[in-house]
Amino acid sequence: MSDFETALSEAAARVEAELDTLLAVDAAPEARLIEAMRYAVLNGGKRLRPFLVLQSADLFGVDPMASLSAAAAIEMVHCYSLVHDDLPAMDDDSLRRGKPTVHIAFDEATAILAGDALLTLAFETLADERTHRAPSVRAELMLRLARAAGAHGMVGGQMIDLTADGAVSDIGGVTRLQRLKTGALIEFACMAGPVMGSASTPLREAVRGYAHDLGLAFQIADDLLDIEGDAAETGKAVGKDADQGKATFVSILGPERARSQAKILVDQAVEHLAVFDHKADLLREAAQFVIARRN
Ligand code: GRG
Questions:
Q1: N or C end: fewer C-beta atoms under 10 angstroms in the chain?
Q2: What is the distance between the alpha carbons of residues 234 and 239, in angstroms, rounded to a whole number?
Q3: In the predicted model, what is the mean pLDDT of residues 111-117?
């Protein structure tokens, strides 16, 4: 295992333990909801977004227990989006992270409620004093996550994606859609560290540049996996973009140009980190990982 893989799996173990604590099972009548939330969250997954939170926080000397709370919060939002995206009204998928999706394992209403409750719990977690002692920092985290996840962020991107019907057909349109749908949350993950560490504007801008290029590279890799990956490796259905006639980076650029564009973006992402010393090495490796991954 490379240093990066070891760090990623250690971060995953830490965030899973935190999620397990935050989603404690109890005997209340709503226990079925907690069970569905746990199923949605404690089911593997690369935990890339939490990793980005922990690493960006480490760059600025943030208390690791505090950044772990923020890492758990973003994973809850990510998992909620996957649960809702898999619903029959949206992508209608029965496989996620190699297991039956939440509405298959439970039922549709429970899946909707589990997603709703994960989104809400994410904000409750950020609002908790354990995430940061300064109320202004907690408020900034909540504001940024709300913007990243909301109507002009992830949910807005999903809306464009669902209603595109050929309207998004050029590279500019696909870039904007994906910046909203997946890029905004990745940017939040990277920016959580500088926010919690009260970083200077130039250093925040360096991390933001990294996050921007990383998010696009991640999405191009996701589009390539949809045509080149297989369900056993990715743990989800593949070939869906083409089946749905969706414009993607790969459908517009073709696989070869898409791959070289992703490499350029990774190089640019790494260049943004030039202001940081070896402490940013794992973030540099994370950029390489997003385009090399097989799931
Ligand atoms: C339904 C509100 C709502 C939003 C949906 C994120 C999203 C928007 C849909 C997910 C569908 C999808 C496959 C998007 C492409 C990028 C993406 C988010 C892939 C999954 O993320 P990974 O690879 O997954 O980090 P793991 O399982 O490792 O966490």
A1: N
A2: 12
A3: 98
pLDDT digits (tens, 9 = 90+) for 11-46: 999 999 999 999 999 888 899 999 999 999 998 899
Q: For the whole model, what pTM was predicted?
A: 0.95
What residues does each domain of the chain span?
3-292
Check: CB of residue 22 under 8 Å from CB of residue 125: yes
Write down the CATH superfamily of domain 3-292. Farnesyl Diphosphate Synthase (1.10.600.10)
181 close to ligand 1 (CB < 6 Angstrom): yes
Task: Output the CA 84–ligand 1 centroid distance in Å.
Answer: 10
Judge contact between 59 and 193, C-beta under 8 A. Answer: yes
CA of 128 to the centre of ligand 1 (A): 26
